[in-house]
Amino acid sequence: MKVNVWNTILQLSKERSVEPRIIIQAIEESLRVASAKFFSQNQNVQVLFKPEKGELRVYAAKRVAEKPKNPAEEISLAEALSIRPDVKEGDVVEVDLPADTLGRIAAQAAKQVIFQKVRDAEQEKIISDFTPRIGEIVTGVVRRIEADVTILEVNGTEVLFPVREKLPNDEIIRGDLIKAVIAQVLKNYQGPQIIVSRSSPRFLARLLETEIPEIANGTIEIKDIVRQPGERAKVAVVSHERDIDPVGACIGVRGNRILAISKELGGEKVDIISWSPDLVTYAKASLSPAKVDRLQVASRTEKAILAIVPQDQLSLAIGKKGINVKLASRLIGWKISIKQEDANE
């Protein structure tokens, strides 16, 4: 049977960014499934489809028998002779689907199955395109705002920006450009879901890489990040070159580098901490910007540290709603308690 679908396949391939072979395989499979009913559910349905040549043939191979017992796999000698005059009992003949039936099934398959197959292929392509990009910063256009999620468009693909991944001060309207990091790529019955985030530590890490060349080239390493999104973050860094101060390099001249990052985060304060393998030194730095007089390991078993600070540093060490000491504790992995220095000590 002659068919003229090659141009349609090429058009679909271009519009959906799906390889022509995927579409051809989808058509073959849909024809095979639909034609099986005509052949009494014969599992040996063959499809010969060469769209570039306009050729389409669907047939079933059946063995010739004097008295067929299984019509799905056998054909009578009388029927077989009408197909091939020289056929003998025991031979295998190819029974073609009649042209009118083939045309009807082909049209039905194109409407009901092919586009589903193409959609599946599109979804697989989205998964394969975005999975290697987890951790990458992208910029999306706000298309829709729903109760618990904002829909962004990134390079023609819709991605999800859930409320939980926003910053508290993020005010978003339709048409806005939103910068976020690809946090997750999920596959479920609804199709691929690309989740982006502005509240994750990974987003801050990527912003630091973008703004600070020494981090991007590996001279300075980010050891850890903890955040209270929209309020405060602490970033522990270490330099792999002796003559480069990691804290100073990250802050920049007059704080220009860290201020640019803070602005992107809606005013979130970012403390740059010098990482140290020494627990006491690291803990002391983690309470920045507060100045700490001394620290005592209260309990190694319970991983508890006591920090002694001057009176004028007490509120700074604790932070608003206790956020500074909480983040410091999370950063070093030990519980830090703050105590004001006794004037008599």
Task: Explain what this protein looks like in three dimensions.
The protein is of the alpha+beta class. The chain folds into four domains: 6-131, N Utilization Substance Protein A, Chain:P, domain 4, CATH 3.30.1480; 134-196, Nucleic acid-binding proteins (OB fold (Dihydrolipoamide Acetyltransferase, E2P)); 200-275, K homology (KH) domain (GMP Synthetase, Chain A, domain 3, 2-Layer Sandwich), CATH 3.30.300; 286-345, K homology (KH) domain (GMP Synthetase, Chain A, domain 3). Helices cover 35% and strands 31% of the residues. The protein has helices spanning 6-16, 20-36, 77-83, 99-130, 201-211, 213-216, 246-251, 256-264, 279-286, 314-318, 323-332; strands spanning 45-50, 55-65, 74-76, 92-96, 137-145, 149-154, 157-162, 177-188, 191-197, 220-228, 232-239, 269-274, 294-299, 304-309, 335-340. The strands form four sheets. The protein has a five-stranded antiparallel sheet. Strands 1, 2, 3 and 4 form a four-stranded mixed sheet that branches. A hairpin with a 3-residue loop joins β5 and β6 (149-154). The radius of gyration is 34 Å and the shape is elongated. The N and C termini lie far apart (100 Å). The model has no long low-confidence stretch (mean pLDDT 88).
